[in-house]
Design a protein that fits this description.
The protein is flat and about 75 Å long. The chain folds into three domains: 176 residues, Zn-dependent exopeptidases (Aminopeptidase, 3-Layer(aba) Sandwich), CATH 3.40.630.40; 77 residues, Sporulation related repeat (Alpha-Beta Plaits); 149 residues, Orthogonal Bundle (Lysozyme). 38% of the residues lie in helices and 18% in strands. It contains 13 helices and twelve strands. By secondary structure, it is α/β, with parallel strands linked by helices. The strands form three sheets. Strands 4-1-5-8-6-7 form a six-stranded mixed β-sheet. The protein has a four-stranded antiparallel β-sheet with strand order 10-11-9-12, covered by helices on one side. Strands 2-3 form a two-stranded antiparallel sheet. Strand 10 and strand 11 form a beta hairpin. Helix 3 runs antiparallel to helix 6, helix 9 packs across helix 10 and helix 11 packs across helix 13. The structure holds zinc ion.
Length: 438
């Protein structure tokens, strides 16, 4: 699809102003973020922007450009103003359109997606006789993302994470309205609890290798490839017949159904995370809080017990909490704080620490310290807005180039400078944790 994105105002026209903010800058920021989300995450989308910089452009020029380009959708982004007391989000389609029009349906979808993430009061879906809605030859939509002269809304507008969330909401809406296909190499959702997991389809598990071989032959005759995969469970060898391995659970379940159709009633699937997946910052936490705590105590019997925070916050942000724990052990020398960061700082990840004169951030308690650590990792590993629920306590979240380090080894030279082996040390430490605790 061809999407025309129109950040409102620009150049000599600042748009609405208030609380030290200019509408033209906010709309451009959101629009550029929207453009990068859509082009990075989706196939079959082409985007043209009315402006990419701070330039003047008339409304006539904008609609003419969209019309002659043959856009499929016109999306204008604005910020409201009304004298200070009004607040919230609203969006518009052309007043001449019915509620059952295609344009109204698109509005409904985008409105609901944006409202999910923008933390603004919902002022509803509206219609108006605005130039860009009336003179555009394709379905058109205009959003008013909060009131610049309202202190509540303006406080949000000053946060880059909010602008990112608003862009993400628009992207989600456009993707849903136009059924856009996600790119295959798109990074996994941070909240996906199974990133890095392999689903193995098992067509029977036998104590005799002969029986397992027979099963493989039976499947071969039905055109299904399988092999025997011996596995030791509680000291006993089982000959598993593996008939497929998938990164996508649905595909694995389809294969189980196929096996049941040919008479393998005992087919099942197992989820496994390979050590190779330990390379990714996003993914499920494999070790329990007790395993983490007992591991650190093999080295430092007086260590703080932070396993449950790493477990819980890791799960919430979709981050490998157990590997983050390994990073904390690496940073703090097993919570002995022998470096520049002092134990009373509750800074387990060396956030902002440079030297003895600049020991970095301090947190109210150990819980906040772990929360900040996981938020900082989230900033590096994901481009998604920080999920709500917990306050942002990482003071350096906004300074991170979002998504610049999806892997632990990508942190080399970023989290630690120069740190050419920083990520490797963390993953190695994690592997030792796995070896000791299983
Ligand atoms: Zn405006």
């Amino acid at each position: 699809m061809k999407l025309y994105v129109d950040p409102g105002h620009g150049g000599k026209d600042p748009g609405a102003q208030g609380n030290g903010l200019n509408e033209k800058e906010l709309t451009l920021d959101i629009a550029l973020k929207l453009r990068s989300i859509l082009t990075n995450s989706y196939e079959d989308i082409e985007i043209k922007m009315s402006r990419m910089t701070d330039v003047s452009k008339s409304l006539q020029e904008r609609t003419n450009e969209a019309n002659s380009w043959g856009a499929d959708y016109f999306l204008a982004i604005h910020i409201n103003a009304a004298g200070g007391s009004a607040q919230g989000y609203e969006d518009y389609i052309y007043s001449g359109l019915s509620n059952t029009s295609t344009t109204a349906k698109y509005q409904e979808i985008i409105h609901s997606e944006v409202m999910k993430v923008n933390q603004l009061k919902d002022r509803g879906r509206k219609k108006a006789n605005f130039h860009v809605l009336r003179e555009s030859a394709m379905p058109a939509f205009l959003s008013e993302n909060g009131f610049i002269d309202n202190s509540h809304d303006a406080a949000l507008m000053k946060q880059d994470s909010w602008l990112q969330a608003v862009a993400q909401g628009h992207a989600n809406g456009v993707a849903a309205a136009f059924n856009l296909k996600r790119k295959a190499n798109n990074p996994p959702e941070p909240t996906n609890p199974v990133a890095g997991t392999l689903y193995k389809v098992i067509a029977g598990s036998f104590q005799s290798r002969e029986n397992a071989n027979e099963r493989v032959a039976f499947l071969g005759a039905k055109g299904i490839n399988a092999f025997v995969n011996p596995t030791i469970i509680s000291g006993k060898t089982w000959y598993r017949v593996q008939a497929g391995a998938y990164s996508n659970r649905e595909n694995a379940e389809k294969q189980v159904a196929v096996l049941k159709q040919v008479g393998i009633a005992d087919a099942f699937l197992i989820a496994e995370t390979s050590i190779a997946a330990a390379d990714s910052i996003l993914g499920p936490t494999r070790l329990s809080a007790e395993q983490m705590n007992s591991f650190v105590k093999t080295v430092n019997p007086d260590a703080l017990e932070l396993g449950s925070y790493y477990q819980d916050f890791g799960k919430f942000y979709g981050i490998r909490g157990d590997i983050a724990f390994a990073q904390a052990l690496h940073e703090t020398n097993y919570f002995r704080f022998t470096g520049v960061v002092r134990s009373e700082q509750n800074n387990f990840a060396g956030i902002g620490a440079i030297n003895v004169d600049h020991p970095g951030a301090s947190f109210a308690d150990s819980k906040d310290g772990v929360l900040a650590h996981l938020q900082h990792l989230f900033a590096y590993a994901s481009t998604e807005p920080l999920p709500p629920k917990y306050p942002l306590v990482d003071p350096r979240f906004q300074l991170v180039k979002r998504g610049s380090a999806p892997k632990w080894t990508d942190l080399n030279g970023k989290w630690a400078v120069p740190g050419t082996t920083y990520g490797q040390s963390i993953v190695d430490l994690y592997k030792r944790m796995v070896d000791v605790t299983f």
